[in-house]
Design goal:
The structure holds 2 protein chains of 2 kinds.
Chain A lengths: L1 E9 L4 H9 L4 E7 L2 E8 L2 H9 L7 E10 L4 H8 L1
Antiparallel strand pairs in A: 1-3, 1-4, 2-3
Chain B lengths: L2 H18 L24 E6 L8 E7 L2 E7 L31 E3 L11 E3 L2 H19 L3 E5 L5 H14 L5 E3 L6 H11 L16 E5 L3 H4 L1 H13 L4 E6 L1 E2 L8 E4 L5 H14 L5 H7 L1 E5 L23 E4 L1 H8 L4 H8 L3 H12 L5 E5 L1 H4 L4 H14 L9 E4 L6 H9 L14 H10 L17 H9 L5 E5 L3 H4 L3 H4 L13 E6 L11 E4 L8 E4 L4 E5 L12 H12 L4 E2 L2 E2 H6 L3 E2 L4 E2 L3 H14 L7 H7 L20 H7 L2 E2 L3 E3 L2 E3 L16 H7 L19 E4 L15 E6 L15 H6 L4 E4 L1 H7 L6 E6 L3 E7 L5 E2 L3 E5 L27 E7 L3
Helix pairs in contact in B: 2-19, 3-14, 3-19, 3-21, 4-13, 7-10, 7-11, 7-13, 15-22
The chains are: A alpha+beta, B alpha/beta.
């Protein structure tokens, strides 16, 4: 499982609504909001899957920025295969 | 991952993101920011690094475990990004592990296989290095005007420095240029002409304090995502912060703009002059600033276009750099034709929008930040447009103060740090020094311990990038070595340069060496491919657009037999210089004996110490007191040159400081034993607050307008150079009715060598599309998804059309990105370049478009 965390930025009036929508996405967990910033984690099988999930955030109304903070990919099976070669 | 490990990793993820958001969960775990040392759980080892993509230069922390990267974190201690990365950061680790990494040297026996996937066989390093060395030495001894090196704005600083030293002092050749010629050369010449020093006075922190943003031909949202994120954050958090987006097409960056000003190609020159004209005619300029700080000039005009091979040597080509002094009144008279009405008619931008932007510059209380990149630089008048942007910021005094200034964005992670700062340009020596300047050569000789006059052999600049490839296409280059670039896809006019025209000379005959990490179009034309380390597989340094130099530490080993580029360069250097002497001593040992043992075929020290030793020598260029002979030349102690060099203006700190601080912006000053960076150059104020206190005190004059002192400029006055509107190199006609513009999009960086190996990115943007206005598509009978044939005077390609693509061009303009090698749009792009900077204009090639039937 790849675990990553992001800070999602929103317009001031959209923060609560956007946080709600983010929390409903499979694999996404909202941990806190601070001003217009929403702290989330994404859990997905691979880095590619994680990126795919994070890339959907831009479609949420009021989201103005998606910032990746941390990505742990020690369990990404595609990278394990690459390392074995 | 077991449950406890997973819980720990997740807690770490939350804590780090919370810290980056200044939230309350930052203390959830002890595993926070990086630096060296074991992670809190005793797991992976952490290393400071800098992102490998784009020009932002964001800091990251890499974690390695069992010889493999396992996590990447935004580095909160790197002030360029303060812990945040864009979503491309997901793939920083993954770029190391593509299935087709090059792990063995490759040699091509049959030149007729060039341009195909075939023909390369595996070889040993010894065989490959002996072959490369013999070919280089043969060319060097026979006619060194027929050898060339093409380096990069992605080459780490110490590697670029060592290459420059080998080529300039070892081979006594100036036939070296970087791919930064394709992205930053117009900015460089602009900086040098205006300020006599290269690189901006401001910094990224200006993004957090501006009242008005003006983007000029810059799609920051896709090409500089983290900086754009700071721009949008400021727009949301500030009061009435405005954004004007100027360009020839709408992009994702236009989304945050209050006003989008779409102009006809090249009329950006007129728009800037129109703003200057308004300021001058209405006495809305900063009078004290003008009186204290500025001088006025005009230059050669009606300079034609550098389309033909003979342009540089032509009568006009020889005069393009000439300028003469004029008075402020004469400058005002030159601006007078650029009224709002005239400029609106010329540009297509409404008068009210031009006025709104001019009024912003006229407001003394507004902090304005102009940001520009390839739309300005890749321009047949790119240097002129850089001048015109500085002109409006200088007239209004809006420069070198927090939140305020003209800011040239770079296209690559170390276009500034390496290509520009260490001198891998054909006309440069390290630290802004020029081969044509005798005092600069003496200074360099002092640091490289060369006899006085030794570098006089390279006082004439070598071939710039386009000239290298033009000469190669004519069969005039016998040896070419390239590293950290993919020229067979990124160069313009590939129809000619890839030998696809009638004459198959050149590329097929030239012996080409390519250092690479993955197979590319360039390796398809290589006679030898050297497999090299990628990113954190060795230690290196990047220098980004805000003058921040930062180290990336070695975290993992390169795969297979891949090696550090610098090792390959050293191995060839000692073979080629075998038997040569400098001042009675072995040439190679004289130049590189302090880091390399040629008998042992290896560095004398580990990668950290090797980098430190190279940095410490390079650092002398900006710390002349470290070398007595250099200091005397810097001070012009014997009066030979009638001028001090002021090399401390770019002062760098000891290597360890960069590791300790996770990057520092130069000039870095030693104050009471502490090394302090400078955020706002030429601005008098406390050094500890980021101002240039030491520089102004040493060379400047305190008490001038806005507390600035431009101590590097001639007479301490930057030049406002009048540059008129002149049209694009070619304008649409019946045969070629559209302008074709190429550039970058978010998912794929440059030619996609790394990003297209990430399946998710490739899925997100699988192919290049031709963005076209719906009205133009309708006139051509073209529907979305139709294949069209695009043809210019230079070449042609096929591509699918889209009216709903990432960009929205105006009628008469089409856009396609250059990342897709299967489309290869640069086959058709002109190689016409700015006559001053020699940077090609990728934005305005005239083309025809026809639907491909069937």
């Amino acid at each position: 499982m790849v675990i990553s965390s992001l800070v999602v930025e929103t317009t001031p009036e959209a923060t609560a609504r956007a946080a709600g929508e983010l929390g409903r996405i499979e694999g996404v967990e909202v941990h806190e909001t601070n001003g217009c910033k929403v702290v989330v984690t994404v859990e997905a099988e691979t880095l590619d899957d994680s990126h795919a999930v994070a890339s959907t955030f831009v479609g949420i109304e009021g989201v103005t920025g998606i910032n990746l903070v941390y990505a742990n990919f020690e369990d990404d099976p595609t990278l394990r295969r690459a390392a074995v070669k | 991952m077991d449950i406890s490990r997973r819980a720990f990793v997740k807690a770490t993820a939350v804590a780090l993101a919370s810290a980056a958001a200044a939230g309350s969960l930052a203390s959830m775990t002890g595993c926070a920011s990086g630096g060296q040392g074991a992670a809190a759980d005793g797991g992976g080892q952490k290393y400071t690094a800098v992102c490998r993509f784009c020009g932002c230069g964001c800091g990251v922390i890499c974690e390695a475990k069992d010889g493999k990267l396992v996590s990447v974190t935004g580095d909160p201690e790197n002030l360029s990004n303060k812990g945040l990365n864009c979503v491309k950061g997901y793939f920083l680790g993954k770029i190391l592990y593509g299935d087709d990494r090059l792990t063995k040297p490759l040699i091509r026996e049959d030149k007729s296989t060039k341009g195909t996937d075939e023909g390369l066989r595996e070889a040993t390093w010894d065989e490959a290095l002996d072959l490369v060395s013999s070919k280089l030495k043969e060319t060097w001894k026979a006619d060194k005007s027929r050898l060339a090196f093409w380096l990069s704005g992605q080459q780490p600083i110490t590697e670029g420095y060592a290459c420059a030293k080998f080529i300039k002092a070892g081979l006594l050749s100036n036939n070296v240029d970087p791919n930064a010629r394709l992205c930053m050369a117009s900015a460089v010449v602009g900086f040098m002409n205006v300020f006599q020093t290269d690189e901006p006075a401001g910094c990224y922190a200006d993004l957090d304090n501006a009242d008005v943003f003006v983007t000029w031909g810059a799609n920051m949202a896709e090409a500089h995502p983290m900086l754009y994120s700071r721009l949008t954050a400021r727009k949301l958090s500030g009061k009435n912060v405005k954004h004007y987006d100027l360009g020839t097409l709408r992009t994702r960056t236009s989304a945050s703009a209050d006003t989008v000003m779409l102009f006809k190609p090249n009329t950006d020159l007129a728009i800037a002059n129109c703003i200057a004209n308004y300021l001058v005619q209405n006495k809305k300029y900063d009078e004290a600033f003008v009186n204290d700080h500025l001088q006025f000039k005009q230059g050669t005009e009606d300079i034609g276009n550098a389309t033909d091979d003979g342009y540089d040597a032509s009568e006009i080509g020889q005069k393009v750099d000439a300028v003469s002094n004029i008075t402020f009144e004469e400058y005002a008279a030159r601006l007078a034709p650029y009224t709002f009405e005239y400029t609106s008619e010329l540009s297509g931008v409404p008068v009210e929008d031009l006025k709104a932007l001019a009024f912003e510059f006229a407001d003394p209380d507004k902090n304005i930040m102009s940001l520009w990149t390839m739309g300005v630089n890749q321009h047949n008048r790119g240097t002129w447009m850089n001048h015109n942007l500085y002109n409006i910021h200088l007239l209004s005094g809006k420069i070198a103060r927090p939140g305020c200034g003209p800011f040239s964005l770079t296209g690559q992670p170390t276009a500034c740090g390496t290509a520009r700062e260490v001198g891998t340009f054909s006309h440069r020596l390290p630290a802004d020094l020029l081969v044509a300047n005798a005092q600069h050569r003496r200074y360099t000789e002092a640091i490289w311990d060369l006899p006085e006059g030794y570098l006089d052999a390279i006082q004439k600049p070598g071939m710039h990038t386009v000239k290298i490839f033009r000469e190669m296409s004519k069969g005039n280059i016998d040896f070419l070595w390239t590293a950290h670039n993919n020229w067979a896809q990124s160069m313009p006019n590939l129809q000619r340069f890839l030998g696809r025209g009638e004459d198959k000379k050149g590329i097929f005959d030239t012996f080409i060496v390519v250092n690479e990490v993955y197979p590319t179009l360039s390796t398809q034309y290589a006679d030898v491919v050297l497999p090299v380390a990628l990113w954190v597989e060795r230690e290196g340094q990047f220098g980004n657009a805000e003058r921040r130099s930062a180290v990336f530490e070695k975290a993992v080993d390169p795969p297979g037999e891949a090696k550090w580029d610098l090792w390959a360069f050293m191995e060839v250097a000692h073979r080629v210089l075998d038997g040569e002497q400098i001042d009675g001593k072995d040439s190679f040992d004289h130049l590189f004996g302090f880091i390399y043992d040629k008998g042992a075929h290896d560095f004398k020290n580990d990668s950290r110490e090797t980098n430190r030793l190279l940095w410490e020598e390079y650092r002398i260029f900006s710390n002349p007191e470290m070398n007595e002979r250099a200091k005397a030349i810097n001070d012009d102690a014997d009066g030979t040159f009638n001028a001090k060099l002021k090399m401390e203006a770019k002062q760098l700190a000891p290597y360890e400081e960069y590791l300790a601080h996770h990057g520092m912006t130069w000039p870095v000053r030693n104050v009471d034993g502490k090394w302090l960076e400078t955020h706002w150059r030429f601005a008098d104020g406390k050094q500890e607050d980021g101002f240039d206190e030491i520089g102004v005190a040493k060379y400047g004059k305190p008490g001038l307008a806005n507390n600035l002192s431009f101590y590097k400029s001639g007479n301490m006055k930057p030049s406002v150079v009048f540059r008129p509107y002149e049209p694009p190199a070619e304008t649409p006609d019946e045969e070629y009715p559209f302008y074709f513009c190429t550039g970058r999009l978010l998912e794929h960086w440059h030619t996609g060598t790394m990003t297209r190996r990430v399946p998710e990115l490739d899925r997100a943007l699988p192919e290049a599309l031709l963005n076209i206005h719906p009205n133009d598509a309708s006139k051509l009978g073209v529907a979305d998804g139709d294949l069209v044939h695009v043809k210019s005077r230079f070449g042609e390609f096929d591509i699918k059309a889209s009216t709903a693509g990432r960009t929205e061009p105006q009628e008469g303009i089409v856009f396609a990105p250059f990342f897709a090698e299967e489309t290869l749009v640069n086959l058709a792009v002109q190689d016409t370049y700015c006559p001053l900077s020699k940077e090609p204009d990728y934005k305005k090639t005239c083309v025809s478009i026809t639907k491909v039937e069937g």
